[in-house]
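# step 3/5: fold
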Amino acid sequence: MTSFRQPGTVLTDHVFAVPLDHSQPDGEQIEIFAREVVGADKAGTDLPWLLFLQGGPGSGAQRPAGREAWLDRALRQYRVLLLDQRGTGRSSPANRRTLARLGTAQAQAGYLTHFRADSIVLDAELIRRQLTDEPWAVLGQSFGGFCLVSYLSFAPYGIREAFITGGLPGLTATADELYRRTYRTVIGKNAAHYQRYPGDVEQAQLVAEYLGEHDVRLPDGAPLSVEAFQSAGAMLGQSNGSHSLHYLLEDPFAGDELSDAFRYAVMTELTFSAAPLYALLHEPCYAQGAATRWSAQRVRAEFAEFDPGPAIAGAAPLFFTGEMIYPWMIDADPVLRPLREAADILAERADWPPLYDPSRLAANEVPVAAAVYYNDMYVDRELSMQTAQAIRGLRTWVTSEYEHDGLRVSGGAVLDRLIGMCHGDI
């Protein structure tokens, strides 16, 4: 183990071996990396553990600098473990280079089936047993909340208390149902953006018109189509997302061409180089007993608002899309292109196992508090409230004060409230 210090904290790196397939504990092993963070003033204190499950899927845990964001609140009473979920960060990687060693697309897809929430929480439970004999607190943000509900379903004995921020999944909702809901929310986010920045209507139209007439490439070689440009709207669900989109649109041209600065900025928004599993497993993370069949692409056809044709012609605003993965993204991104066949196999897979156990959740005995963001663009509020009612004893805080990233931007206020709710102080 390697330890180092930052202002106000002591950090220790851990590596754990876990089975690739938890149904075969003596089979192939992979490594899971996790970083322990404790307040410098409490480094020698016997504190309860708090496991943090990151949003995603496919993203490593945050790399902290001191007691930033929610960590400051957590470190007052917990020893925090930041988990790089399997396949992410410094855990054993799963990307185009490592998956190429498996040979066939069928083998690649089969390997990737072990990287969903059900496997992640079994990793967590094995790690807990190596660190402590006691149940631990768990904090789940976004997809991390989905994982936490899986944890409550399959290994609740490992959890002392649970905090969920923008991450209550629909227990039985299909990907199609989810996208029908979230597309409507994204339409509202677009309308609000253009009301805030009416000049962006023309700016987005000009970019769309240019893209419709030219073969534009991003610096990594990926094509920048109108549809790819629309997908930059994924930022609209963040607290500063509308402002960020405005700044992206305010000066996109250098003369009569799209500027290099604009192309690099768009590439940063669109590339999956840091999180290829996000694209490959985004729809599979909703799948239970049915194939997703590129759900976001199919359901999009039901919403004429996202047809770029009228915007290219200057007849309507260009509506940006949200947190949706489309098959053309796999073809376009150099880090995903070699995995297109495996992605198609995953999209057609129908025998996905359950991710949640409604009967066990109905008998839940773990204290759970959840922040539900009223205007959440990524996790549907109504589905979240249905799930809240299905988990025995869960307390909700529904708020419009924050967007989906409330945990990160609230300076610890969101986590503080959830801790108070679990402890009976609120």
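# step 4/5: annotate
The chain has a mean pLDDT of 97.
# step 5/5: archive (pending)
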